[in-house]
Amino acid sequence: MSALPALRAALVEGRPAIFVRVETARGSTPREVGAFMLVTVQDASGTVGGGALEMEAIIEARRLLAAGEARSDLAIPLGPAIGQCCGGHVGLGLRRLDAALLAEMEALEARERDAWPSVFLFGAGHTGQALAQALAPLPLRTIVVDTRADRLAALPVGPERRLRALPEAEIAGAPAGSAFVVMTHDHALDFLITTEALRRADAAYVGMIGSATKRETFRRRLTEAGKGALAARLTLPIGGHQVRDKRPAVIAALAAAEILTAILSTAEENRCSGFALVQNECNNPDG
Fold it and tell me: From CA 169, how far away is CA 160, in angstroms rounded?
C-alpha cells in the first residue's frame, strides 16, 4: 500500500531516486492528491495512477536522475495527447530523495495512520484470521479481540491483538465511526457483543457471521428484550448474499469490501452533512 519501505531502502543503500507525488487533481483522475511513487534507474514502486500518466512521470524522473537535477513539476491533462480519456488534470511534483524528505513522509504517514477508522474483529477463528489478513492492506486500524491467547498468537502480522475475558467491554471505548464484526466461537457471546455494538448509534458497521436462522434468532431475542429496532442495523450474514461460498478466505474478501464501503460511506456522509459550503463538492465529486 505504501512506497515508504522502498524510500527507506533506497536511502540506506545509497541508490539515487526520485519521489513523485500528486500535488493537484482536478476533474476525473486515477489517483488523489498525496498519492506517490518512487522511481530509480532500475525500477518504480508505489503508483500515481498507472497508464500513460505514470509513464510520463517515470520518464521525467529518470531524466532528473541522469541530469543530476533535484526537482521538477509536471502538469498533465488526461486527454488524447497522452492517450488517456479521464478528462481531468493532474499536477505532479518530483523531488530527489534525501533524509529530510523521508522524515517528512514518515511523519505524514504516522499522522494519517492515527486518523484511520477502526475495525474491531471479535473472534480469531478461521474466518477471523482470514478477515484480518484481507483487511491488512487497507487504510484501516484492525483490532482483534478474543478470549483465547493461542488464537491471537496465530494472527498474521499487522492487526492489534487484545486478549480479553470480557470482549464486549471493548465496545464502549471504540472511536466513533468504528466497524464491529462479530465471529466468536460462542453464539451466546456473539449475541452479547453484537447487542452492545448495536447500541453504538455512531457505528459505521455492525456485522455478525452466521445464517438467516441465526439472524432470526437474534432478532427474536432483541424483540423480547424490547430492543427489536436495533436488528435493522445488523448485517448478517456478513459479505452479502450474492455469493454462496463458506470458505473463510472468500467470506473475508467479500466482508472486507462490505466493511470498507460502509466506513467510507459513513465518513463521506459525516463530511458533507450540515456544511452548506461543501454541498456542491459533495454532490458533484468530479466537478
Answer: 16
